Amino acid sequence: MNGMDELEAARFRIYALQDGAVRAQALAFALTVGLFDRLEREPLTRDAIGAAFGLAPRVLPALLAFLASNGLIERREDGAFANTPATSAFLVRGSPRYAGGRGLLFQGFYPAIAHLPESLASGQPWTPEGQHDMFAGFTAEQQRWFAEGMYANAVHGGRSLAEVVDFSDFQRLLDVGGNSGGYAIALAGANPGLRATIFDLEGVRELALERVAAAGLTERVAFAAGSFFEDELPRGHDVVLLSSILHDWDDGDCMTILARCFRAIEPGGTIVVAEPMLAEDATGPDHPAASGLTMALLGGENRTRRRIGEMLEAAGFSGTWMSELLPQNSVVKAVRAE
Q1: 115, 237, 247, 287: which one is catalytic?
Q2: Based on the domain organization, do 83 and 141 belong to the same domain?
Q3: Which among 69, 93, 117 is the end of a domain?
């Protein structure tokens, strides 16, 4: 009987995988209209939610049931719906642990995701230029969503990275492709003696500086605009961070990025790579594996720690160190010799 129960549970997990696109779209809708933000201010009845967001009676019950059954909202004894603690922590904008931007990030990927079966079968990205095409085609709104999503990832990733790598001996951090500054902010906040420069495209400067100012770090975190494919990186830093950068690109592009990092970093300085990495035996972890499917579609690759280490050595770095295999981002670091 227990075996049958386990099989039945597995069947519904398979259903959840099959429903994944619908689930993601429904969550993105709730985030986009601000449903969780509104419920954080005050619980609302079903009818009040329908009126507040213009939701038809035919679809409203299904949306509420989906959110409630997934532990995102709960119905109180008085009949009103309220956020659960997890939603208040992770899906309400303004929360220091907000992760909802990641759900909005994938809004910009939906046209590409339809081509995943073709990419898996052919081994090729969905367009000849892969991520180069995708980023170039973003609307201003999608760029904002992408930046919010990357910031959501970076806030949590930065806190984890600060626990895995000791940055207290470094003076100047260069966050390459740092987007809106989640890692730079987290690491500067955890290390009062650290100054940081976020290096990314001009389009994210405003959002990055907003985030930096909100964190009270304007005096220690700066922004430099540029492309790591077209421009040399700012000099004068003793640690360079690549957070979820290399997995976006094929090996040739990665070596271009690493060559620029090698030229920019001070002799004796350290390069830190933090991103989703796979087990050597291809058994997981779950998040890096799912992320790896997105990378397969877009022309990148979630690699193993050993492979990242080999790429760093090929770029001229030495003294490679690797963290344990972690459920979100693993870490590989190396040194530019004196």
Answers
A1: 247
A2: no
A3: 93
Exposure of 148 by Cβ count < 10 A (0-12 exposed, 13-18 middle, 19+ buried)? Answer: buried
Chosen domain end from 93, 125, 143: 93
What CATH number has the domain bearing residue 41? Answer: 1.10.10.10
Residues 184 and 220: their CA atoms lie apart, in Å, by 10
Q: Which domain holds residue 34?
A: 2-93
104 part of a folded domain: no
The domain tally of the chain equals 2
Residue in the structure block whose two tokens are 């619908």: 22
Token pair 């940055």: residue: 167
141 and 220 inside one domain: yes
Tell me if residue 247 is catalytic.
yes
Nearest to 183 by CA among 66, 329, 34: 329
pTM value surpassing 0.70 = yes
On whether both 187 and 270 belong to a single domain, the answer is yes
Residue 116 and residue 210 in one domain = yes
Q: Tens of pLDDT along 243-302?
A: 999 999 999 999 999 999 999 998 999 999 999 999 999 999 999 999 999 999 888 999
